[in-house]
């Protein structure tokens, strides 16, 4: 079996994680849409609170990336921009749910829509970042390649030292005869 390069291995792991997350969101969204998973009133409240915090984090993270040159250099701006429409949707969905009590159908359709958006966004990111890795993955690849090169250098030095010792032993044996 052919050994994968460090770059390909890291890209596969990162992209694979995003695609698996995408599939999980898609399955949960489908199960909720088909009423296989029932959304209790407690879940609805928890969902509203968690998604308000999540939507706030999406906006804060986007602003942080835009304001910090260091953070911008290490993250994909596309990923951050792609989630902004979801944040707007979640703010509206959650605030409407808090202001006026909604019936079950509101959540049975609204919650899966958020999950479907996440699924599509993460699926796109998984495929896209396989071909265009994010800067953090590039850094990890470079670091791993440096470590591999250092390891090879150490092994070569060790082998060189062993061969020099062998030569010295042979020379000392020849002089001793």
Sheet of most strands: none
Low-confidence stretches: none
Helix content: over 70%
| Radius of gyration, CA atoms, in whole angstroms | 27 Å
Describe the structure.
This protein is mostly helical. Helix content is 87%, strand content 0%. The protein is built from six helices and no strands. The longest helix has 42 residues, at 135-176. The chain is elongated and about 100 Å long. The model has no long low-confidence stretch (mean pLDDT 88).
List keywords for this structure.
mainly alpha, 6 helices
SSE blueprint:
Blueprint: H1 6-33, H2 41-67, H3 69-74, H4 77-99, H5 104-131, H6 135-176
Q: Summarize this, please?
A:
This protein has 177 residues and is mainly alpha-helical. It has helices spanning 6-33, 41-67, 69-74, 77-99, 104-131, 135-176. α2 packs antiparallel against α4 (77-99) and α4 packs antiparallel against α5.
């Amino acid at each position: 079996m052919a050994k994968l390069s460090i770059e390909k291995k890291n890209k596969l792991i990162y992209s694979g994680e995003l695609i698996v997350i995408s599939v999980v969101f898609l399955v949960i969204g489908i199960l909720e849409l088909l009423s296989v998973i029932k959304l209790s009133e407690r879940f609805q409240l928890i969902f509203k609170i968690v998604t308000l915090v999540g939507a706030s984090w999406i906006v804060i993270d986007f602003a942080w990336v835009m304001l910090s040159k260091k953070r911008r250099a290490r993250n994909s701006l596309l990923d951050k921009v792609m989630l902004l429409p979801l944040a707007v949707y979640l703010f509206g969905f959650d605030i409407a749910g808090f202001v006026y009590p909604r019936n079950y159908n509101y959540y049975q359709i609204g919650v899966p829509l958020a999950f479907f958006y996440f699924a599509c966004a993460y699926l796109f990111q998984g495929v896209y970042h396989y071909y265009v890795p994010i800067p953090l993955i590039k850094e990890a690849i470079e670091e791993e390649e440096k470590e591999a090169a250092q390891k090879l250098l150490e092994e070569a030095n060790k082998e060189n030292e062993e061969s020099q010792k062998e030569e010295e032993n042979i020379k000392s044996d020849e002089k001793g005869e």
